[in-house]
Design brief:
mainly beta, eight-stranded antiparallel beta sheet, two-stranded antiparallel sheet, about 5% helix, about 50% strand, extended
Length: about 140
């Protein structure tokens, strides 16, 4: 009997570089409905048809590592209407570390970087969050 895949074994290809993250959220696609009713329609309610697709922003969380500056450099490049857009591939992996399901995020760029809260009395890893805007998701289930 097949079992559902666990969500804890995944990888993120960050435009050609493997970057480790502890959490990825926001892999959603929404199709906005268009309502239309013809004036001489015998039905007294509008019909619905698919409209434009809408993609939520991705949120990626990871631990802070010394001298790991790759996405800080990407955020620093942002200027008015100028940013390097990257394709990001998020892969759900099986026991042999092979991709079983992939989400290809198209033309992604960072919109928000949240640094960890610093507390002298805390006993936890420093986790930072980056929010990514993009222009679409392609899903591949192998």
């Amino acid at each position: 009997m097949p079992y559902p895949l666990p969500v804890f074994h995944f990888s993120v290809d960050w435009g050609g570089t493997q970057v480790t993250f502890s959490e990825v959220t926001g892999l959603n696609i929404e199709v906005q409905p268009i309502e239309y009713r013809d004036g001489n329609s015998p039905d007294y309610s509008p019909s619905k048809m698919p409209g434009m697709k809408k993609y939520g922003n991705l949120t990626l969380k990871r631990g802070v590592f010394a001298s790991d500056n790759e996405y800080y450099a990407w955020v620093q490049e942002i200027a008015l209407n100028k940013i390097e857009r990257r394709n990001i591939i998020i892969s759900l992996l099986n026991e042999e570390h092979a991709p079983v399901m992939m989400w290809k995020v198209i033309n992604a760029w960072p919109t928000k970087l949240t640094s960890p809260d610093l507390k002298a009395s805390a006993n936890e890893a420093a986790i930072e969050t980056i929010e990514i805007a993009h222009e679409g998701i392609e899903i591949e289930n192998k």
